[in-house]
Amino acid sequence: MPDLSGIVKAYDIRGVVGEQLDVALVRDFGAAFALLIKPEAPAVVIGHDMRDSSPELSSAFADGVTSQGLDVVSIGLASTDQLYFASGSLNLPGAMFTASHNPAKYNGIKMCRAGASPVGQDTGLAEIRDTVEQGVPAFEGQRGSVSERDVLSDYAAYLRNLVDLSGSRPLKVVVDAGNGMGGHTVPTVFEGLPIDVVPMYFELDGTFPNHEANPLDPANIVDLQAKVREVGADAGLAFDGDADRCFVVDERGEPVSPSAITALVAVRELAKEPGGTVIHNLITSKGVPEIVAEHGGKPVRTRVGHSFIKAEMARTGAIFGGEHSAHYYFRDFWRADTGMLAALHVLAALGEQNGPLSALTQDFSRYAASGEINSTVSDQVARMLAVKDAYAGKSGVEIDELDGLTVQLPGGAWFNLRPSNTEPLLRLNVEAADRAAVEALTAEVLALVRA
């Protein structure tokens, strides 16, 4: 019996092609997924990114699905949020082949039920793993069929219908697709809008020849920042490899915090639905719930991770959710994450007024933050306990353990320390009133973590 625990993660399947993932195994994953969703749906929609291995692996998965008697609707090259659109609009379960920003040798599978409802460890992924490990039972009935469907133009039209840019002033926007799927979706989504797109690295290339397709790493937005300044753009956008995350820089080339984007989009969504609920994970800036409340909304705090965000959105009927990793979730997009829709909101807000993006986002950026800092440790539990013991019992200190360890200090500063699920790492996020306070608190906590 194979052990698949190394590649079946909390939210998806991901591994090195040829070593951990191959055609035969992916075919079994397809058959197991079909068995999981067969009572609910007659077909599965499948999309894939631009990696060299993606077409073959997605075909193998389709072969597994059809071997269990279900049909396949193939949408071909797609961003992850384009696959979610297909799942939502066609009301079919879906599978997306991508390893997001991981290096070229990796690939993976993100799966969802009809309506883009996530499939994670607790919602079917563990069952899929068990089925494959134990051997997928053969199906004696008629095989399913495979059809092809192009949904790119429908996806683009749907997004443009959700955000009205017709009244926007003309904007010049640099877009760095990182040789990922943004190069496939941006030209169609932005067609006909009052936006002059300056493209960077739109050529689809799963080897990522220019830089890693992870815009949260400052090294990967250096080219974008330089180009924004060079051409005098109003803004810059950077997408990750599968284009479900979007990172924003202002007209000076300065990064705009994803927390500020969360607050900005939340205010726009609350203007459409006053009193609505907005989800934010616990490492977003405390400015997010403050701003949501000030605009009459109901902020709800969750753990980090899309399955928690989506579950809480479903429970509360939330209109929007944001994570500090630049994932943005919309009720009007089947509660799925789409960086493209968040980007359109930012550009609409910018185009509705005459000031620069730096001035617009300043109102949503209230505090200084460290960004996520990783520390390799030999014993996660011991280091977490050491940090907890150092702060527990201090006057005015509040501690909660919703996700890792969150410590609120007198005066408003706070930090969160979380263990990685997949690596021997502790992840630290710190926020305080100013940069000096952030640096001091960061040094204090890291001294405990790395002792």
From TrEMBL:
Source superkingdom: Bacteria
Signal peptide extent: none
Keywords: Isomerase, Magnesium, Metal-binding, Phosphoprotein
Pfam families for the chain: PGM_PMM_I, PGM_PMM_II, PGM_PMM_III, PGM_PMM_IV
InterPro entries to which the protein is assigned, alphabetical: A-D-PHexomutase_a/b/a-I, A-D-PHexomutase_a/b/a-I/II/III, A-D-PHexomutase_a/b/a-II, A-D-PHexomutase_a/b/a-III, A-D-PHexomutase_C, A-D-PHexomutase_C_sf, Alpha-D-phosphohexomutase_SF
Every Alpha-D-phosphohexomutase alpha/beta/alpha domain range: 8-134, 154-253, 261-366
Family: Belongs to the phosphohexose mutase family.
Stated name of the protein: Phosphomannomutase/phosphoglucomutase
